[in-house]
Amino acid sequence: MARIAVLPSAVADQIAAGEVVERPASAVKELVENALDSGASAIDVAIEEGGRQLIRVSDDGSGMERDDALLALERHATSKIRLASDLVGVASFGFRGEALPAICSVSQLLVETAPADGAGTAVHAAGGAVQEVRDIARRRGTTVAVSRLFYNAPARQKFLRGARSEWRSVLETMTTIALNRRDVRLTLSHDGKVAFSLPVAGTLRDRVASLWGAGVADRMVDVEDVRGAIQVSGLAERPADVGTASRRTFISVNGRVVRDNGIIRAAEAAYRSTISAGLRPSMLLEVVVPADSVDVNVHPAKAEVRFLDRWVVERAVEEAVRRALGTFDASAALGLRRWSANGASWAPAPADVELLRPAAPDSAGLFAELDAARDDVAAPLDQRAGGRPDGMPGEPEFPPLQPDAEPPPPIVVPPLLQLRRTYMMFEHDDGVVLIDQHSAHERVLYERFMGMLERGEAPSQRLLFPLTLHLTPAEGEAFEAHRELLAKLGFEVEGFGGHTLLVNSVPMPHPRFDAERCLRETLAALTGDRESAAHAKHERLAATVACKAAVKAGDELSLGEMRALFIALGDTKLPAHDVHGRSTIVQLSWPELERRFGRQ
Ligand SMILES: Nc1ncnc2c1ncn2[C@@H]1O[C@H](COP(=O)(O)OP(=O)(O)OP(=O)(O)O)[C@@H](O)[C@H]1O
Ligand SMILES: [Mg+2]
To answer: For 387-401, what is each residue's pLDDT tens digit?
Structure first.
């Protein structure tokens, strides 16, 4: 007797259904995607008992002719592709012709549809078999009602959770779709109560606001970047707000919502050094890549995609988010006049400002060092302002970048005051601002050191008398593990037998820079740190050395030093946060101050 038999199609459909329809939320997703594919401009979703009892999706899309409505319930019947080659760059959500038959095989289904207002068709089916077909009158569009999901598949039904839990997944699924398709009006109700009713939204920000409230939208900054053929846009949570509310993530690739931990991790990497380790930022990101560089047909529920070159995509995401956070910080926090690469300027600083003047001679050390840091990032700014990198007024040393461009405004620095030898204070249009001098300097140095580690240029100072350093075995090991990187930072060190080091050169000494202490504390902090990837290792070393090398709370700063620090901070990518994620800048807004004084 033959032991192999081809399964009857109803059984095969049920098995396939297991992959496509796991629970009510997955049926909702498939039905709404069908509605979207039909060109609907408004979709109504009604759920009962978490979708266990009823899922009804109505749309005003293309509708179906009678024959198509019947065919739609058969496996591999699709209007969306014809050839395997159509799969490359397929734009519709559906393409397999699986969803309706799969749902139909495990429920009682009613499809009512009409290709134009007037004559339409109703199809009744149960457990995959058509029971009744009749003519009806209805508006253009389609309504699919799924009753008693898994009524004939007890094994599957057992795995359904309670109505509340299933409803939560439905709500999550619908929220995701709502974020993705802002061009469609969407309503969702559960047991007769409206959960949301969303008008068409022009932007992701608007959709977020109508879904979760304006407060949530306000806590996000815009991401918008193009890198080669990859486009990344969306919203990312402001570092200062991360961890204050529940986390939300949303990732789409070429218009398809996907779960993609790689992309999420890449975006999180952009936050490194702005938030404490362990905090997870909210992010809603839309990635667009060339259609032939991604495969969307690798997951039964299309929840994952495969990239031709994942690394390139992830780096583009990381860079886009990093830029978004940087832009936000720099423009908002300091109110400092800056020129971005493409020549656009941010809001000017307040009216009562002074021109940047050279540092007082007494502070040449720190000033020169900070000034050098500033040259790294702000050379064009200096050149345009006609200043010299050493801070002295004079003829420009470099030819202007664009000879016929309009002369740019000079760099402006507000009057600065040092408080408690710890904070710098100034006022601007929005309020009073306090800057933590150590955190600020640390941020400046961190970015400078990162530049040195990644681009490799090390202005160092040869010591007249080499330093001798005796290390513990653990410190010695940390030194060996970071030897090359320390050299890049300007520490020229020779092993001197055992765990004794001879230090010949150190990075940019300034009057307050204690090279020996810095090196020793850095090695102590890096003990046991060897396994990390190169970039993470760079970040950790740069952060450690920056922390040790920065001016401390309690150091008195001259006016020149404060100005130099202010400018250098304004030129960092993330001035508002130190490398541990703490605030560098605290602002007391005028309205808040007025409230405190009872003026408002
Ligand atoms: N709401 C709808 N409006 C108009 N046509 C629809 C609707 N729902 C389904 N159809 C038609 O029925 C066909 C089968 O739908 P089904 O969801 O089973 O497959 P698909 O969307 O083509 O592919 P996939 O299985 O990947 O979703 C579709 O190709 C489409 O032609
Ligand atoms: Mg479909």
So the answer is: 333 333 353 333 333
